[in-house]
Amino acid sequence: MANLPSWIRVRLSAAGEFENVNAIIARGGLNTVCTAAKCPNKHECFSRGTATFMILGGICTRNCAFCNVQTGKPLPPDPDEPRRVASAAAELKLRHVVVTSVTRDDLQDGGAGFFAATINAVRIALPEATVEVLTPDFQGCTNDVATVLDAAPDVFNHNLETVERLQGSIRTRANYSRSLDVLRFASGWRPKLTVKSGLMAGLGETDDELFVSMRDLLEAGCESLTIGQYLAPSKTHAHVDRFVEPSMFEEYGRRATAMGFKAVASGPLVRSSYMADKMLGRNK
């Protein structure tokens, strides 16, 4: 932490629901992206009594240069996992449930059916809650995206992550145009839902390239946008090219809002699901 600028450092507190959230996740045998991705906001979010569930196991079939999630050959999905996610969400009394996953290119539907089953299980356990999904690209298969959308999440999120020039080196087996197509397909779905995406700064992009990606996302029908500082999980991951100052993140936010995004969260520690409930509120 000593090499990080002052605005990146996270202060920890013993207050709140941290231990309770940890215990509920452990009892359910569940994964969270908060832990798997070394999210800097884990302590804050757990202390608020929230977490982002990561379904389809804890092993990803891709090996993206920015991501800390374990890669390898995953086990078959656990058919009881959707119920356990819903049970944990109910025990936490969540009003907004965020579900993401590892990428499962080994599965015929990329895990889309598990997303749908999890959304349905949450609807039963917490009928008043809103549900947000953060999905992989499903290799561009619109039938799989439709499977998720048919389950009627309130928010469909798929991260573009970085600018077009850096896609090949940062996102293994992903594609800039494919991700935009996934978002475009979701934005045309009826009944309409909130479409969301996220970008990282500090991977070697220029500000002008970020602004182009913002415009591409907006033209694809994305209404909500998160922008945060990339932090390398280890020395073997992509290196941090620059630490963007908070004032520049404020400028990103102003530019995105001026372009037409309905909800924007831009800051050094902003992540895809950080304060997701408040972002949804700004879309309404």
The parts where pLDDT drops under 50 for at least 5 residues are none
- What is the name of the CATH topology? TIM Barrel
What is the name of the CATH superfamily?
Aldolase class I
Secondary-structure element order, N to C: HEHHEHEHEHEHHEHEHEH
Instruction: Tell me, briefly, the overall form.
Output: globular
Percent of residues in beta strands: 5-15%
Question: How would you portray this structure in words?
Answer:
The chain has 284 residues and is α/β, with parallel strands linked by helices. It has one domain: Aldolase class I (TIM Barrel). The chain has eleven helices and eight strands. An eight-stranded mixed sheet has the order 1-2-3-4-5-6-7-8, with helices on both faces. Strand 7, helix 10 and strand 8 form a beta-alpha-beta unit. The model has no long low-confidence stretch (mean pLDDT 94).
Comma- or semicolon-separated keywords:
284 residues, alpha/beta, TIM Barrel, 8-stranded mixed sheet, globular
Any chance you could write out the topology, listing elements then pairs?
Elements: H1 18-27, E1 31-32, H2 33-36, H3 42-47, E2 52-55, H4 81-92, E3 96-101, H5 112-125, E4 130-134, H6 142-150, E5 155-157, H7 167-170, H8 176-187, E6 194-201, H9 207-219, E7 224-229, H10 246-259, E8 263-266, H11 276-283
Parallel strand pairs: 2-3, 3-4, 4-5, 5-6, 6-7, 7-8
Antiparallel strand pairs: 1-2
Helix pairs in contact: 4-5, 5-6, 9-10
